[in-house]
């Protein structure tokens, strides 16, 4: 089912990493000037700044802080490493609350050579350890399944089915999932697993970009919507049928786009959002 | 369960593309001198040669031709393209038989932007169209599921579950699967899907290599066994529990290894085979 077209920018959110050359102040000013109402803040953009002050500035500028990226990376070979990750996630939750964002996105982590099943147990333990703080801060945690090409070192959760399983295992209203078309488009079970999210409104975030052919870099060669092989509108339709009507977040890592004029790139994002999302 | 160690080279097979700088004659001579008993021939190595003559030479040298790579690439936007693919697969089956190999490996194909479900239907139709010829030539067809990072243009079959589903759909003893650890290691259902292969001995080929961290190229940065994060012995154990005791095929695409002395590389392959497979 094709969803209703996106006729205006009211649900458009851009990740600060998408326009990586811009510091947070410039991103804020440019997004507002371009009519982009939502911003997702990567934690690197907070360095040397006070999160609550940044949150006030963004809101005063008229932006909605949609989510914060990213917590996670819970697995580690030893207890000290896992405790450090838990501490860092507590800080990330604090920062999310200070920014006034409702959601912290989790890239769950993996340790090369450690069995993925062990990493998944460590992920479950890590998330469980920060649930109280998430609840106290009124921050939801969105497990983002990552493409299987990142299973070695970035995430042992590589399908939406696994993310849903992890939510079932944790069984806590504070935990949900983030659906990113780049990571999940290839999965024959995607429609069914998105539908599974509707049960308890656990679908907390929706990220868009596109898969270019050929893709020349495992990390930083994402495309604009419409530029690749992903049927983004179809997946948006499934997401909306599952009850999600929040922001559509443009998250693009691209050496190619970071090298171009970012003002022009932001205009291209708007067009791709209106015409191919 | 850890499988029995590989104490000798009796099950070692090397793909001609693994030692890409060597033409078929040199590969044959070097493999035999190194004590490698099996060879899988990529079709490019037959260019300008008579397959039956190559097969006689390889067998006279004492090599077993384990399989031929590769058929497949069935999907195409139009009927003419799909018919051309079927014709090419018929030629590949003939070449496989002429070489005296029992198996043709299929990289099934995909068309960027065409729904994966459509490509899968075209794959099923394409395989069905060549079954008679495969039977007449006594060649088995091994569907090789490819890593999801190749779903855009190389294969719409990206998990062993999907390959098993395709076998069920075709329901023909001529069709089975190839298990390649590089493509499948990340899948939480891998053990169960390998066990599913045992029902009708449909597991026809077993390919090994390793996943390096970081992987710097989507195609040509595979590692030697033991060099990356894949638990190759564990997967070999599952494969053997499913009843497969054929050749263990080393299939490595690597700019790094192709640039080194291929004689030394072949020695490294033997060590990696004995110690990390």
List the helices and strands and how they pair.
Two copies of one chain form a homodimer.
Chain A: E1 12-15, H1 24-34, E2 38-42, H2 51-60, E3 64-72, H3 79-99, E4 103-107, H4 116-137, E5 140-143, H5 160-170, E6 175-180, H6 181-184, H7 190-197, E7 203-208, H8 232-241, E8 248-250, H9 255-258, H10 262-276
Parallel strand pairs in A: 1-2, 1-8, 2-3, 3-4, 4-5, 5-6, 6-7, 7-8
Helix pairs in contact in A: 2-3, 3-4
Commentary on this structure:
The structure is a homodimer of 277-residue chains. Chain A is an alpha/beta fold. The first copy, chain A, has one domain: TIM Barrel (Alpha-Beta Barrel), CATH 3.20.20. The first copy, chain A, is 42% helix and 15% strand. Chain A contains ten helices and eight strands. The first copy, chain A, has helices at 24-34, 51-60, 79-99, 116-137, 160-170, 181-184, 190-197, 232-241, 255-258, 262-276; strands spanning 12-15, 38-42, 64-72, 103-107, 140-143, 175-180, 203-208, 248-250. In chain A, helix 8 (232-241) links the parallel strand 7 and strand 8 (248-250). The longest helix of chain A has 22 residues, at 116-137. Chain A is globular. Chains A and B meet through loops of A and loops of B.
């Amino acid at each position: 089912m094709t969803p209703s077209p996106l006729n205006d920018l009211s649900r458009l959110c851009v990740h600060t990493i998408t326009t990586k050359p811009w510091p947070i102040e410039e991103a804020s000013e440019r997004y507002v000037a371009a009519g982009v109402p939502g911003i997702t803040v990567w934690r690197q953009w907070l360095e040397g700044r006070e999160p609550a002050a940044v949150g006030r500035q963004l809101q005063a500028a008229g932006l909605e802080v949609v989510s914060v990226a990213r917590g996670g990376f819970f697995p580690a070979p030893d207890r000290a490493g896992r405790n450090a990750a838990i501490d860092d996630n507590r800080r990330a939750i604090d920062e999310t609350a200070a920014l006034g964002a409702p959601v912290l996105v989790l890239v769950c982590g993996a340790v090369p050579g450690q069995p993925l099943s062990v990493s998944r147990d460590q992920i479950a333990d890590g998330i469980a350890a920060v649930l109280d703080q998430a609840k106290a801060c009124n921050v939801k945690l969105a497990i983002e399944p990552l493409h299987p090409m990142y299973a070695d070192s970035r995430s042992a959760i590589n399908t939406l089915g696994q993310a849903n399983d992890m939510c079932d295992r944790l069984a806590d209203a504070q935990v949900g999932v983030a659906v990113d078309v780049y990571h999940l488009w290839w999965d024959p079970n995607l429609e069914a697993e998105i539908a599974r999210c509707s049960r308890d409104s656990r679908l907390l975030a929706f990220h868009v970009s596109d898969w270019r052919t050929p893709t020349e870099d495992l990390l930083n060669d994402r495309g604009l919507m419409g530029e690749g092989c992903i049927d983004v509108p179809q997946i948006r339709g499934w997401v909306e049928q599952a009850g999600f009507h929040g922001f559509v977040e443009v998250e693009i890592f691209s050496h190619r786009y970071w090298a171009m004029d970012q003002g022009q790139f932001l205009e291209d994002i708007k067009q791709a959002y209106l015409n191919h999302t």
